[in-house]
Specification:
Chains A, B: This is Mannose-1-phosphate guanylyltransferase. The structure is a homodimer. Chain A is an alpha/beta fold. Chain A contains twelve helices and 17 strands. In chain A, helix 4 crosses helix 8. Chain A is globular and about 60 Å long.
Chain lengths: 373, 373
């Protein structure tokens, strides 16, 4: 068995299925989060797409899903193959360090030396074969001790994503394209984004992390020792009858912090982070503008229509219509429009304003309209 | 009794309540035509507004309503005072010459010398007192033998209305502002409309006609003798048991022609038409742009919201929202927008495209979506 085959055999997929996707309201909401929708027209949910992408790497018995208690039934309906011991239920959301860290701690206890790869349940990736090739490289680099992230080769100067500045190539067997990471940078303005793309050194930060579970826990312990202590205490009893009581006591007190801050950025600063430049199409479908873009193939004048049995009539209109009712929807002379039609709520905006949807959700919360959130 | 009091005593209001108002789809539709909606925020339907405007002139026992059979119950629910003999039901729509001509023929047979005033059921008039003063002048001019129309003093160079070119003042007792009419002109382009308004000679054609019933019938007879023959035959049996059979035989064959062509324009050409320049606010609320204008008081940046219990959340948006569901409607950064939300159909367009709504209705008809029309 070659070294790299051995590492692949120790690979475990982890799918954090948590965020609601408030920028996709009223489609995404508390009881129908983004990962339970078909946003690509693939005919299945983003969660199922994510699962199907990982099965050829991990097999369907080595993928763990971390999700909210409220979504258990929906997740299991989407993933009938998902084994009970691969379901980790959060009693309340505690951010990505707790979710991925708990998965790492549980798996490391069950299977020391396991390599985990965490992939959000609600992103879109077009070329799965290329994606898996990048993950294989990442697994090799993880086996060598690195915390590894997949960066995405930018196709345009997006201001909607954070960037990873890559540095020197690393010499890792089985990971020929791996580079070290100089730094992470937050979402830039357009001029900066253009410079980044022109330089060739910058990649989109897609939030995908691959590492040995013990290495992830070690990084968390260095930066957030109390969080690590809680995670280890949880893992200790996870596969025992005490799980419930310990979860109730510990989980609600865990620090809410994104894994970028507890693991990735400190590891990068210490030279322990590697990046694999991914050559596949990726999008976090963060708002309706990006869904419209995915569906129009970049053509400005198109009207994308999502929704089974949609009855849409368009005269000189472009943008996106999401129809989750059987109502007739007529659009006349509206350009770059976003119309999202659900049984209890309707959104009308433009691609340019798509990022502001979250603010509307916040305003609805304050105004006592939580019934539609 | 003065001459003018005598004429006013012979006055009979006629309200043709016919058109669906296709440009106001999906609000207005076959089973809920424009005149059955509250488009002004008055708290009552346009039909009821029209009735209330006429009662001080005619009394509630001297107003006749001409409407479709399908709307009888709705009309009677709106107008509990409406006497049975004042309801004229059309088995199918035959345009305004047939509707107003039949009312004239029935009333003339019942009460020779009657003066009728026909006022659409679905227009908006703001200053009813000034309106009634103009109608009183019109009644005096009608008593003198003229076909009389109320023209509206333009407040802007509208390209949505036809115009009336007024000529010399007429010397008619009780009608000091009456002028003769030089011609009717169709909806102009903007440059022409601006010239019209600057000249001071042009008035908006509001389609309101006041005349002795015998004079109207005489004009119809001159221009459309077959139509007149049919109307007289109908009137002859209207108040007898034969009405049903004769209606079934004659009504479907009557020529469909607007009263502008069978009466007003020929009378104008012959010098038998008078116009009273009306100083009251009038609008035919022909499309959603005009409803938005009525509600915003002309302020461009406002968002008008129609609909009881509407739950509308707006961020930097202007235009009009009509909410006939209890759904939450969120608008973000859409300007001059028109959103009409009904249980089975949704319209999204802009004020500038409001006139095109009729074309969409036609397209829906062709595409087999008559269920929402």
């Amino acid at each position: 068995m070659s070294h790299s085959t051995d590492a692949l055999n120790r690979f475990y997929g982890v799918i954090p299925a948590g965020g609601i996707g408030s920028r996709l309201w009223p489609l995404s909401r508390a009881d129908a989060p983004k990962f339970l929708h078909d946003l690509t027209g693939s005919g299945q949910t983003l969660l199922r797409d994510t699962w199907d992408r990982l099965v050829p790497l991990a097999g369907d018995q080595r993928i763990m899903v971390v999700t909210g208690r409220a979504h258990r039934a929906a997740v299991e309906a989407q993933l009938p193959e998902l084994a009970d011991h691969n379901v980790v239920l959060e009693s309340e959301p505690r951010e990505s360090s707790a979710a991925i860290g708990l998965a790492a701690a549980i798996l490391q206890k069950r299977e020391p030396g396991v390599i985990i790869g965490a992939f959000a349940a609600d992103h879109v990736i077009k070329n799965a074969v290329v994606f898996r090739q990048s993950v294989r490289e990442a697994i090799a680099a993880a086996d060598a001790g690195y915390i590894v992230t997949l960066g995405i080769q930018p196709t345009e100067p997006s201001i909607g994503f954070g960037y990873i500045k890559s540095a020197d190539p690393l010499d890792i067997a089985g990971a020929p394209t791996a580079r070290s990471v100089a730094s992470f940078v937050e979402k830039p303005d357009l001029a900066t984004a253009e410079k980044y793309v022109a330089s060739g050194d910058y990649l989109w930060n897609a939030g995908m992390f691959i590492a040995r579970a013990d290495r992830i826990l070690e990084e968390i312990g260095t930066n957030e020792p109390e969080l690590l202590a809680g995670l280890l205490e949880l893992a200790e009893v996870w596969d025992t009858p005490e799980r419930g009581a310990v979860v109730d006591r510990i989980w609600p007190k865990l620090k809410k912090i994104a894994i970028d801050y507890s693991v990735a950025e400190p590891a990068a600063a210490a030279g322990r982070l590697a990046v694999i430049p991914g050559q596949f199409d990726w999008d976090d479908v963060g708002d309706f503008a990006s869904i419209a873009k995915i569906h129009s193939g970049g053509r400005k004048r198109d009207l994308a229509i999502l929704g089974e049995g949609a009855r849409v009539l368009s005269d000189s209109s472009s943008g996106i219509v999401v129809s989750h009712t059987k109502r007739v929807i007529a659009l006349i002379g509206v350009e770059d429009i976003v119309v999202v039609d659900t049984p209890d709520a309707l959104l009308v905006t433009t691609s340019a304003n798509a990022q502001k949807v979250k603010a509307v959700v916040d305003a609805l919360k304050l105004s006592g309209s939580s019934d539609v959130l």
